[in-house]
Amino acid sequence: MTGLTAELVVEGHVPQTPAIAPNGQLLCYVLAPTSRIGDHLDTTLWLADLEGDGGWRRATSDTATESRPRWSADSRTLYFLSDRAERGTAQVHRLTRAHDVVIALTTWRAGIIDHLPLADPNLVALLAEDEPTEQDTRRVQDRDDAIVVGEREPRARLRLLDLRTGQVSTPSVFGHRHVVELRQRPDGGPLAVLTQASADKDYGPRTSRLHLFDPATGTAVDLGPVEADAHSLTWWPGEDGWHLGYVALTPPVLHAGTAVFDLALGSHVRRNRTAGLPMCPTELCQTDAAPLVVFADGLNTTVARLDPDGPTPLSQHPGRLDALTTTPAGTVIAVLTGTRYQATNVHLGPPAGPLRKITDTRPELDGITFGTQRALAYRAADGLDLDGLLVLPAGKSASDGPFPLVTIAHGGPYDRYADRLQLFWFPSAQWLATAGYAVFLPNPRGGQGHGHQFAASVAGRVGQEEWTDIQTGIDLLIAEGIADPDRLGIAGGSHGGFLAAWAIGQTERFRAALVSAGVVDWGMLAATGENGQFEAALGGSTGWHGIGPHRHDAVSPVSFACRVRTPVLILHGAQDTNVPLGQAVYFHRALRHFGAEHEFVIYPREGHSIRERNHQLDLLRRTRAWFDRWLRP
């Protein structure tokens, strides 16, 4: 038996973005390291001939960041992004099966953000910001570079690469709007184009519009505004003509879960096709006919077909299922999924299942004895059905309890725990279970997987019923003899960090807490976080509607810092723009003022996620040491 070390966790590799060729014979995926050493992430492309021996071969070296593999319509050419020429600046590259040679196709100085090979074999659509002008370069050199908000803001524009000449042209369409996504009609017709007024994450997703663009004529048609945070564009034919679908937030508030919207181009009628479902759509996948839909379905995932009468479930899979790709006929899919005790890998099969694993990217974990994981189903205090996961200490059964219990709240809050392997670089269930802890992973209301009303119920009410939901689960585990009521810990990152900080201001039942990139003041987050108005929907208010107290004050953990008696470990990335470092500094200063036991750790160069190898190692080891200090007998 091999022991689980921090190095085993952070030095692994994970598959990303599988892509099936249209002929169904070839498949490509990106293999990325879990951690980064240095300033750049070195990834590789792997290829397999699905109708040959099925063996994988490395198609590129691991000396560049390579991503977004896309096949040509004839399946002969693989296009992808790589920064091999200049690190940090991605360009479109081509790998042809006939010559097995990689060729750079662009030298766009601003870099390429995304690309889409079109039905016309001579064209590739690109998303890229404007190249710097001589004046821009001179301004940088002279440090005459004052930033005027709203002027010269970087925006991705639609561009066309002509493979015959190598020239990149920029059609005069969409004005100064920021282009975020493209999808060509299955018959090779126009492109559906999703734009926003700005690349600003607070403002842009609330200003989405749909357009049609004809690459043959260079003309565009505006189809009007769409719901906030729209993505996953998909075409399909209907008896009444072509339809365009996308996934977006359910109106009217900015936290209400996602829905599939269907725009009939002939009548311009738009419908919510997933209203009332107890599941949440996460992806749409285009075929030549009815599209496929991936649903977060409690602890599991459902694959469905979007038929005229509504989604028709085809298969259900334990845990998560992500990055679905399919052939045009929709008869074969490839996805990223795993099991309770096996890491995520590429799986292949029909949409109705079964799916078979075709990669093995984490063989080093095969000898690990993980803690037993089981699903939990229970009811909240008001009778709402809830679920979650329990992971027991490795090598132990429930009858060996009670154990020290760490509850880890998930982020989002529009996220969920799915029934998959809970082992990650951040504090995770198996990392703690292999050190002797039982771990509770709750899915309180506000999260994904239970439909619109479940998600919307926390808007303006964070820390209320969702916190009661978590406490109910803890009490259940104590009553079952699994959790020791005198050795309880709580942890979380992002919104989970908010819940951990909230918990220790509401109760003294926890012996230790961990707050990673956590929200402690919703008004400050609305003012400085990159998703300001989305955060305001959760906190219930901003600070600009007159003299307080404001609604967000009542649900901000910093308002209750004077009550904190639980030792707390605060972890935060110095360059976090999602939940800025000021949140952690504010909490640290409040706890210091009141003399509360705490430790505050800042990771330089890191954003909302911790990426560097040594920082990940420190985080994992520090987490175990912190809970060992306070929860061990």
By oligomeric state, this entry counts as single chain
> Unreliable segments (pLDDT under 50, ≥5 consecutive)?
none
Number of strands: 36
Count of alpha and pi helical runs: 10
Strand content: 25-35%
What key attributes describe this structure?
four-stranded antiparallel β-sheet, 633 residues, alpha+beta, eight-stranded mixed β-sheet, 10 helices
Brief characterization of the structure:
With 633 residues, this protein is an alpha+beta fold.
Written description of the protein model:
The structure is a single chain. By secondary structure, the protein is an alpha+beta fold. It contains ten helices and 36 strands. It has an eight-stranded mixed sheet with strand order 29-30-32-31-33-34-35-36, with helices on both faces. Helix 7 (522-528) packs antiparallel against helix 8 (532-539). It is globular. The two termini are 26 Å apart.
